[in-house]
Amino acid sequence: MSDRSPAVAAQPCAREVRSVVAIRMTVDGTQYDDDVEPRMLLVHYLRERLGKVGTVVGCDTSNCGACTVHLDGHSVKSCSVLAVQADGHEVTTVEGLAKDGALHPMQQAFHENHALQCGFCTPGMIMQAIDLLNENPNPDERAVREGLEGNLCRCTGYQNIVQAVLDAAGRMTGRAESDVEPTAEAVSPRHAAPVAGGAGG
Ligand code: FES
Ligand code: FES
Q: Is the pTM of this model over 0.85?
């Protein structure tokens, strides 16, 4: 008969104590007060607490950009930001772009340029593209491709996405999209960046 004692296995686990932190943030124009665990990611707060499921999770490595939102007007990957880090700040998701029933010019351009296939990357692409145009209202094709490098489209529909962003730039600055000078990358991409062409053309 074994002389091993079962006493060690019988030790009860210490009860997990979860602390919460009070946060306040404005999301898509509405102020929210909540208690969250310090480890809660912003994307999970948006989706699970606020129901903002237009912001999606496409990876677990902070690479895909599908979760991109604006934090105080600048794009961030909301899977790499803690909800507590957004305390006191303003968040805009893709659901907060349309005003009075009218799509944001970037949304309209994506629609008219068929810049989506499955649409999973689209919310993040749109949010990143708006930030890109805020920084550079008149980008050429190369600047658009470089500006979207952090956003991946698994359907590889990059060509139409780039066209949509150039179209939106024209709409938002009053230029015709045909006025945008094509770059060498339009014909021969400089490198194999995610936005350098694909099934879309
Ligand atoms: Fe955030 Fe992929 S879900 S980068
Ligand atoms: Fe499907 Fe981009 S349209 S992932």
A: no
